[in-house]
Write a sequence for this structure.
């Protein structure tokens, strides 16, 4: 499903069971990239997509998305890359345990030539990172740009949880992890 609905700026809603019968899909790279009219992600959207390995840029620049459903990736245990997944959205928080079953993730960044996009980069309304967000992601090697460009005139991240990366002993890159961050 790479780039399937990419830049469909008039696309307003994702049917709740759109991918239910697509049990062999492995790639959701840029599936909804730039769908600026989207306002929500249906709960259980990826419940039957157990073979997915890439969610790179899936909702990148879907500016009107404000909430990530709890358990969105619970059944996607084969994922290795979440680079840019929610970059440029208007989410204000991240659900606790969002990645608790994604133990094979190696990268929360995506690289396109010289450009790097982190999972939550440019989420300028993000106010909170939950404790233990990456606790089960013990295979991660890169968090480059994951939370970069979070500052905004209207909102700033309240805190960085203590021990956020304690279980991520294989990381080789934290490059620009919190670049341009403003803390309250």
């Amino acid at each position: 499903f790479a780039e399937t609905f990419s830049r469909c700026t008039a696309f307003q809603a994702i049917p709740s069971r759109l991918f239910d019968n697509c049990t062999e899909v492995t790639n959701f790279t840029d599936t909804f990239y730039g769908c600026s009219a989207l306002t929500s992600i249906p709960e259980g959207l990826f419940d039957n997509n157990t073979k997915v390995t890439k969610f790179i840029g899936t909702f990148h620049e879907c500016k009107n998305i404000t909430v990530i459903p709890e358990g969105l990736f619970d059944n996607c245990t084969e994922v290795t890359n979440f680079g840019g997944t929610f970059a440029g959205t208007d989410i204000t928080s991240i659900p606790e345990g969002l990645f608790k079953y994604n133990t094979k993730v190696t990268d929360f960044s995506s690289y396109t030539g010289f450009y790097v996009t982190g999972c939550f980069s440019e989420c300028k309304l993000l106010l909170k990172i939950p404790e233990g967000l990456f606790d089960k992601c013990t295979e991660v090697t890169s968090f480059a740009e994951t939370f970069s460009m979070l500052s905004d005139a209207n909102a700033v991240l309240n805190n960085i949880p203590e021990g956020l990366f304690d279980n991520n002993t294989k990381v080789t890159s934290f490059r620009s992890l919190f670049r341009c961050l403003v803390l309250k």
In short: The chain has a mean pLDDT of 92. Residues 92 and 121 are 13 Å apart (CA to CA).
